[in-house]
Amino acid sequence: MGKGRLFVLSAPSGAGKSTLIERIRSVFPEMLYSISCTTRAPRAGEREGVHYYFLDRSRFTQLVHDDGLLEWKEVHGNLYGTPVEPVVAALAQGRHMILDLDVEGAKEVFRKIPSSVGIFIKAPDMAELERRLRARGSDSEESISTRLVNAQKELQAEPLFAYTVVNHDLDDAVEELSSIITQESE
Ligand code: ADP
Ligand code: 5GP
What we know:
By secondary structure, this protein is of the alpha/beta class. It contains seven helices and nine strands. A hairpin with a 2-residue loop joins strand 5 and strand 6. Helix 1 crosses helix 7.
């Protein structure tokens, strides 16, 4: 049995990480995906147990107390956390898994599971990041402003990641990400 790896993807919000992860999951159908818990409200089209487990604050806090999360952070004013059990199961079975985390969560996973592969996704520049956040049409003006301020800070964490992929042309970025995953899966 091969060794399972965790691929930890982080990006400033709006860089295109969710879009890339969706594409990558169709390129690698065997790849597992860590479904996070969040206290954020679902966006249009998001489904319980598919995109996230949507919890209220008290259920989230209970999960923290029960040691049910590998890591958890407050991001843009909401709580997000990685259920620990599926990660442990994936590694035990030698399966690969993608984790979509903010940079603070990524740092904690790098500490706890040093064999994790960190991949930082960037938009070509801040103007394009802002354009994409608006084009997505899912966040309020206030939330877009918070995300842009946070982006400046998140970009400073890039050196902690083994790889950076600039999501300029989507197909090129998918190809680059696929070749990193293939290389690290050997
Ligand atoms: P994230 O998950 O990083 O917050 P999304 O995947 O939701 O970002 O992407 C933000 C917006 O940018 C979406 O509307 C998406 O369709 C668009 N987008 C993603 N990648 C690209 C790209 N390479 N070029 C142009 N627009 C993109
Ligand atoms: P969004 O609200 O756009 O879905 O996600 C906001 C941010 O939370 C993104 O940077 C995403 O990577 C991060 N995030 C999603 N799930 C988790 C998680 O389980 N843990 C941590 N630390 N961050 C997460």
